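Dear Dr. H.,

I hope your travels went smoothly. While you were away I took the liberty of generating a structure for the chain from your last submission, since the lab meeting agenda had it listed for discussion. I wanted you to have the full record in hand beforehand rather than looking at slides cold. The sequence, exactly as received, is reproduced here:
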Amino acid sequence: MAAPSGRSSGGGAGWWAALLLAAVALRLAEAVSEPTTVAFDVRPGGVQHSFSQNAGPGDKFTCTFTYASQGGTNEQWQMSLGTSEDHQHLTCTIWRPQGKSYLYFTQFQAEVRGAEIEYAMAYSKAAFERENDVPLKSEEFQVTRTTVAHRPGAFKAELSKLVIVAKATHSEL
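The corresponding predicted structure, in token form, is as follows:
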């Protein structure tokens, strides 16, 4: 039997190329963990509220956003969680999609469970349309192994986005 020449009306080589591309695309889709994004309301009133989401196999990771704020009405925010292909890294992003929040935050804390923070940043303004993210000054927030939180007395009450990258903690058997 002859090898496909590419000239037949059945598509021979083109069919094999399409099959190869489909196989590569399928493999790439399996390799990347798509983040899960969930909307939630940030509610003013000065009372402490929390919102949590789990990610990873067996809900290995948890990201919790705890805050208290004052101001007008509820704002819709989002939390996105994603894991690396090997489930050794977690990203947790909490933000207001419309950019700047108009609420006055009296406190905030984002905590990860099942991982230790390798990078964290807090922003007073989230990127929106032609605007860029505006980070808080480093003295306004603090980062520990598992939390990023306001620094009492230094935080200027503006928050619109938090980003955390964390590495899985290893539990001994």
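Two observations you may find useful: Residues 80 and 115 are 16 Å apart (CA to CA). The radius of gyration is 22 Å.

With kind regards,
E. W.
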